[in-house]
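Shipment paperwork, digital attachment
Item: protein structure file
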Amino acid sequence: MNRLASATSPYLLQHADNPVDWWPWCDEAFAEARRRDVPVLVSVGYAACHWCHVMAHESFEDAGVGKLLNDGFVAIKVDREERPDVDAVYMTATQAMTGQGGWPMTVFATPDGIPFFCGTYFPKPNFVRLLESVGTAWREQREAVLRQGSAVVEAIGGAQAVGGPTAPLTAELLDDAAARLAREYDRDNGGFGGAPKFPPHLNLLFLLRHHQRTGSAESLEIARHTAEAMARGGIHDQLAGGFARYSVDAHWTVPHFEKMLYDNALLLRVYTHLWRLTGDPLARRVARDTARFLADELHRPGEGFASALDADTEGVEGLTYAWTPAQLVEVLGESDGRWAADLFAVTESGTFAPHPASAPQGGIPDGRKGVEHGTSVLRLARDVDDADPAIRGRWRDVVGRLLAARDTRPQPARDDKVVAAWNGLAITALAEFVRLVEAVGTGDEQTDANLLEGVTIVADGALRDAAEHLATVHLVDGRLRRVSRDRLVGEPAGVLEDYGCVAEAFCAMHQLTGEGRWLELAGDLLDTALARFAAPGGGFYDTADDAERLVTRPADPTDNATPSGRSAIVAALVTYAALSGQPRYREVAEATLATVAPIVARHARFTGYAATAGEALLSGPYEIAVVTDDPAGDPLVAAAYRHAPPGAVLVAGRPDQPGVPLLADRPMLDGRPTAYVCRGFVCQRPVTTVEDLLAQLQGRAPC
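Attachment content:
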């Protein structure tokens, strides 16, 4: 009896017809293991995971493997995106036992949930031998198995501990973190480290803020070069916008084709702020196209943003996206086809080399399965953003025709699950993008201006839709739920990153709309987080004090693919304190950052969002209020956003709007739009001209 048919998780539903007698994560599954006196297999993955699909096809869809599992184990299937707490505990165990981690994650545990053997992907012959060996060890060497489990729990309990050393997150420490990133920077290809190479969005956000605070040309160049290298590479969808999860090489050429909501939301913030700070046309275009991707491909009307697009199409990774020179000619004709092949680096030999049929054990698989040799992923081999208008026009025409042709191909599946934290990231990113478009205008070239304006309108509608969905569907009795699908909220409780990312998003909505309800909702979420997640000594746990008890209570302070719960809650606390004028939230943020500061000093690459929040605190952050009858079109508002210091908050509207503390008791001077600039709750004189406002924002005016 497979119990996954009624699941809300698309990943679990993918396994609903397996011959494996799957259970969802629940107390009843562990009770069944105790009743039968058998070990538990906890299999963790997610819907867009290529190698999860491979293991499913090889093993979980095989009747013989199903019988082995059903006879000797209780099998539990977990969607890591739905239950990040479960994933965090067992990923820590997997990394402790093997030195690496990844998905699919394969964990054998006692009926009490204590892990005693962990791994990732196993080819079918290896997995069958493993099932037989684990079953034998459970029956014949039980004492040794239990000792191993106890040692693992002790190890992961220490890894997830709170209450360690603390230190102030100072300017010197952040300067050292930027210098460390500069030493680890790949000066040839951009980014950090070798293959596989992930978009370092959190580190780029930190470096952009560090550049603003210090004027560091090196920090800006690292961010600019990396952003350009990614945008020109195969990791960036040159036709529809959006970024793949990572590149299997060090050059951003061959992507792992799944597209995750969180990556694209965070990269949208990077390109938006790079455009804001430099006016770079490539950053402007990529920000526009990433916003369009979020709004067109991942937004679910009447709901929020879907989690991901699959890596596979009809079981073949990258099938939708790869091209040959002949296919380009077939779609575009001889002249444009050859021109496009040169522009997008499509060759007869192709991008993809022959590949092994399966992934290595452990870590992130580096093999490619199913991509045809001789096809190419599109890359941008030459500059188009600064090219002659005729070249840009031809490029736009070619892109449109290729995209129309690609849309007729089989398409990757979409994971329609709405994850609270990731939707929060998307709302914040889109709000910043919309504000920047309002601040700088849509450009001089009419065609591009019309496109940018159209994307902005759609993006604005999508982010408001998503915010309403979080506020009305995911908030249940004052508590956040982690996921929903088809407007039905799931049972998993929100974790700390949900509270932090959604509270920050509601603060962004407050600034974008001038509506007090969003700030009130953000404050309620933060108060709940302080009451339910706070740990002694300034830290936070990732799960609430009344959440389900796992073998250890996770409390990971490091940033990875997404901000840690701790970094997310700090960013929201800093922003909320500035918007509400309540210093106690800032004090909590400072105490929490002090628990991360020792890690920032040693591991800058894994504390990018914490450092980003630290830059905001060092900057002030600035609190900017513009009282005006025209918040969307006032030059003071545009100048304030265009030149806002790191982490600044900005609210514009009529004086004394209900629920908007920054507009309280702040009149227009002589009936003219007026800007009020404060920093760390200390205010400067109100000004009515753009010149005086810029002098205050750039630190050139007396208080």
